[in-house]
Specification:
Helix content: 25-40%
Distance between the termini: 18 Å
Largest sheet: 7 strands, antiparallel
Number of helices: 9
Strand content: 15-25%
Strand order of the largest sheet: 6-3-5-4-8-9-7
Number of strands: 9
Length: 324
């Protein structure tokens, strides 16, 4: 049985800043309503069509961007190694900045946000990022209001239809959480970019990789407030979260199998033995594999105890659910 919550579209913020959100609200409308009512914001992903159910179940100004051309895998590994050193540099990185990278066979694109003065970014932060890197093939720095910055990151308007939403994609995705204690090495990165260069032409044409910063100096994710310390999120020591994503063509064409092979190859080329991010669900994992990949032992044991109390009959279930 599936219960539709589409009609529950109300968002209210009280005088204490506590929001009550209907079960059918999507993130674009959520961000707009919370900001318009209270001039507040909350952490969430960049896809405005994601529903509050998916967001709350798993937990997911000005914008800037640079694109660096790469000539070969070694060149790409050297470029990303500098970006990684930049991410760990406490003289320029604090909780005002966030960014991610998108590698491809011919370039590394880096984009992010900085909640501060544009002049400070241009004078202090950008020069440190650009130091020793090749000249960007393109770049942009734009000042936005909060809501406009959200729309720019996704490249689409925030408001979403209250009914009849039908934007869907057939895809396969996997993730890797890279610990801050053991950042990516040059040799691992060169292996990764070699795979991207050689394999991407043989596999599905529609794919992307995102390598987003979670850790670094002053990371609120790795150093949460006491109120967040008991959350279901386990990965408090990660530097990067990597998402590999490929559109899966119709099964009859063999495209789905090839997409899965390609994405698994991306993961294996970059790193093995690391955990993953529960919001980037890998449906190929068994329940036990998913639990080990997405949760620490202590967090998972705590969630199982809660599950037995509040949902002993497993009414809320999926193939990788806690307790499955």
């Amino acid at each position: 049985m599936v219960v539709s919550l589409e009609a529950f579209q109300t968002v209210t913020v009280d005088g204490k800043g506590i929001a009550q959100i209907g079960g059918g609200v999507r993130l674009g409308n959520l961000a707009t309503d919370i900001y318009n009512q209270s001039r507040r914001a909350l952490p969430h992903g960049v896809c405005p069509g994601v529903g509050i159910g998916g967001h709350a179940t798993h937990g997911g100004y000005f914008n800037w961007a640079y694109t660096f051309p790469i000539a070969n895998p070694n060149d790409a590994a050297t470029t990303f190694s500098h970006i990684q050193s930049f991410a760990l540099n406490a003289s320029v990185i604090d909780d005002k900045i966030g960014f991610g990278t998108s590698p491809s066979p011919s370039s590394i694109h880096i984009s992010g946000t900085y909640r501060g003065d544009e002049a400070v970014f241009k004078a202090k932060i950008a020069p440190e990022l650009l130091r020793t890197l090749p000249t960007p093939s393109n770049s942009s720095i734009k000042t936005f209001s909060w809501l406009d910055s959200l729309a720019d990151m996704k490249g689409s308007p925030l408001p979403q239809p209250l009914s009849g939403y039908d934007a869907h994609d057939d895809f396969y995705a996997k993730s890797i959480l890279v610990p801050e204690s053991t950042p990516l090495t040059h040799s691992a990165l060169e292996k990764y970019f070699t795979y991207i260069t050689t394999a991407s032409s043989k596999y599905p044409p529609l794919w992307f990789a995102e390598i987003n910063l979670l850790g670094g100096p002053s990371s609120r994710i790795n150093n949460p407030s006491p109120l967040a310390a008991d959350s279901a999120y386990s990965s408090r020591g990660a530097l990067w979260v990597v998402q590999h994503y490929s559109v899966t063509p119709p099964a009859a064409s063999g495209g789905a199998k090839r997409a899965i092979e390609f994405v698994n190859g991306l993961n294996d080329a970059l790193a093995t033995g690391y955990g993953g991010y529960v919001n980037y669900v890998d449906p190929e994992l068994s329940a036990s594999e998913a639990h080990k990949t997405y949760y620490s032992r202590s967090v998972y044991d705590r969630l199982v105890k809660i599950k037995r109390v509040v949902d002993p009959e497993a009414v809320f279930w999926n193939p990788q659910a806690v307790g499955a």
